[in-house]
């Protein structure tokens, strides 16, 4: 029996668990730092917190971090990796990912997402429902591409940046590290590190 541990018993965690079962994982179990006050995440049990997961890490064939906060997810992935966790890539059966694209360990690509040829997706990325990533894009570590986001060809997204639901990015644009792109924004020019943009066209806030 293939056992998957998911750290982060959130709504996003439920989506990841559902995807995992559709990908053939036979046992999916949650861990969350709200335990023991929180005992379940919908139909899935929460077995402990991060410390408990680290103690039991060898019992699982894979571990994923289902935390939306990019910096927290990156930190947890590093901690689990140091402890010897196997960090699988989860590709929803309805996702389309080019065989000529690389997707980093601990990443999830959810229902209806498309990643085209010659892209590089860093570790711990979330490519959410119906997002599209066109050819030759580079996404850094722990990037979150929200539902319905569209990246044109040759886009670069720096580590731990978050692209809000329904936003879009023009071809060849470079988005820095730790950037937040607002919901529905249209990014048509490069964005420096550690800032927030919103609007059509997107402007610094």
Query: Looking at the structure, what is the overall shape?
Result: globular
Number of helices: 3
Indicate the radius of gyration in whole angstroms: 17 Å
Strand segment count: 24
Strand content: 25-35%
What level of helicity do the residues show?
10-25%
- Spatial order of the strands forming the largest sheet: 6-9-12-15-18-21-23-24
User: What is the mean pLDDT?
Assistant: 97
Largest sheet: 8 strands, mixed
List the helices and strands and how they pair.
Blueprint: E1 3-7, H1 11-22, E2 27-31, E3 40-41, E4 44-45, H2 50-55, E5 62-65, H3 70-82, E6 90-91, E7 96-97, E8 102-103, E9 108-109, E10 114-115, E11 120-121, E12 126-127, E13 132-133, E14 138-139, E15 144-145, E16 150-151, E17 156-157, E18 162-163, E19 168-169, E20 174-175, E21 180-181, E22 186-187, E23 196-198, E24 203-204
Parallel strand pairs: 1-2, 1-5, 6-9, 7-10, 8-11, 9-12, 10-13, 11-14, 12-15, 13-16, 14-17, 15-18, 16-19, 17-20, 18-21, 19-22, 21-23
Antiparallel strand pairs: 3-4, 23-24
